[in-house]
Specification:
- It is found in: Cell membrane.
- Its main location: membrane.
- Keywords: Cell membrane, Membrane, Transmembrane, Transmembrane helix.
- The chain is mainly α and 179 residues long.
- Helices cover 69% and strands 0% of the residues.
- The longest helix is centred in the middle third of the chain and has 25 residues.
- The protein is globular and about 50 Å long.
């Protein structure tokens, strides 16, 4: 992949979930259009990974940790936006999951990988738990800041435990021999 591909892929990964959420919820302007600095920050961050690409296998744990942080932070951001739009509970949770997960799905599809979201590993489940805890905490009148921190800490802990202990959901295996 050339440097433009790296730039584009980095931007899609970081901003794709929020963009899809904004389009589906008719939330305009799309976040990175309203704040182009997000596009430049994510693109430049992606370009900064080029010099360390050869060391990536040694930095796997760091990248999994950073991805886990991104998952829970973006989930809460998506929920917060849907709450401010006055949307129903289920839509708030789905908006959080879309924001937290879809950028990675788009990245994986573009890289011809099976999206992490579609594997048995706890990923989308962590997003659902994080969003649900955030929503619940805000409904019982915990301050928005404390609710966000609480939900993100629980979600981050759950994701890190899932990585460490290879926790996952049961796999669905289709076999034509079953009738």
């Amino acid at each position: 992949m050339d440097w433009i591909g790296v730039f584009i892929l980095g931007c899609i990964t970081a901003l794709g979930g929020g963009s899809v959420r904004d389009v589906l919820l008719n939330h305009h302007p799309i976040t990175w259009v309203a704040n182009p600095v997000y596009l430049m920050i994510t693109g430049c961050a992606a370009l900064l990974t080029i010099p360390i690409a050869r060391c990536m296998r040694h930095l796997r744990k760091l990248f999994l940790f950073l991805d886990a942080i991104g998952l829970v932070v973006f989930t809460v951001i998506g929920c917060k936006i849907a709450i401010t739009m006055g949307l129903p509970t289920i839509i708030v949770i789905v908006a959080g999951v879309i924001t937290g997960c879809v950028g990675g799905v788009l990245r994986d599809i573009l890289c011809n990988d099976i999206p992490l979201l579609l594997r048995s590993e706890l990923y989308a489940t962590v997003s659902v738990v994080t969003g649900s805890l955030y929503l619940l905490a805000t409904h019982i009148n915990i301050s928005v800041e404390i609710a966000a921190i609480f939900a993100m800490l629980v979600g981050l802990t759950l994701r890190l435990l899932a990585i460490k202990f290879k926790l996952g959901m049961p796999k669905f295996v289709y076999n034509e021999d079953y009738h």
